[in-house]
Amino acid sequence: MKIFTAEIALLAFLVLGIREGSSNLLTRDCGTTKHPSRVRRVVAGEDADRFANPWMVLVLDQGNSICGGSLITLYFVLTSASCLMSSPKQVVLGEYNRNCTTADCVSSRQVIDVDSRFIHDEFNMTSVDKKYDIGLIRLARKVLITDYVRPICLSVDRRVGHKARYFTATGWGITDLSKLGNILQKVALMKLDRRSCTRRLRIKLDGSQLCVGGLNRGACSGDSGAPLTKKFHMDGGRSRTFLVGIVSYGISSCDGVGVYTNVEHYMDWIVSTIYESNMLSSQADYIFTAN
């Protein structure tokens, strides 16, 4: 992760002003769920718990292709740059079973238009290593916080995921049945030495990327932009879930190693992009006042 510049550090402390123990959080009421998430082991994944991932976002383009994303504030979704190349038009929050049409499913969903998208300036879709694969979606209206919809945590001043070894990936991408999943899937993965990805993918990674995988399991097509998360106990003992990585790419079989964008490496870019968007927006209700 880049060392914060004085300007961004000042922005984080003066504008955000949201502390949890010794960490400054991008959004105050983040990373918590209605019910504790049970530990379960999206190729080779299992159905996620209904309330365990309220930050999960389904990103839709005009052709109904899907990507994943993470709600990080009341107005912004973090996803991959590659997902934004197709100019998505809508996002769905509070989704779980894509085929469910019951009153409970319909009432829990929030379908919101995309107001604008921000792709990292240095991302190049044709590059082999897919570095800078990160992007932001600004929503056309503010998200309503419910049991089904809530932002995930990002720390603006600490590398909370730096020493973590085990993570959780979620998404509606292709499963081991070679079709898109209807029910949100969840899979446990571990951090691998970057040399593992270099050896399997023949691509040299750097600190802006994470090499993550598991035995016969992993993210797949349709999971691009989806979150890689880790739960931490903050000072005071409260458990919160943090966004650590974003699904970028991997081997075609989707069952070994995968490359994830290291979110903590891009915190300067995330904070400054949101701040600049707010300065240009006519929205009077700023995102940093989430309750």
Automatic annotation (TrEMBL):
GO terms for molecular function: metal ion binding; serine-type endopeptidase activity. GO terms for biological process: proteolysis. Residues 1-23 form the signal peptide. Pfam families: Trypsin (PF00089). CDD domains: Tryp_SPc. The keyword Amino-acid biosynthesis does not apply. Keywords: Calcium, Disulfide bond, Hydrolase, Metal-binding, Protease, Serine protease, Signal, Zymogen. This is Peptidase S1 domain-containing protein. The gene is Dyak\GE12203.
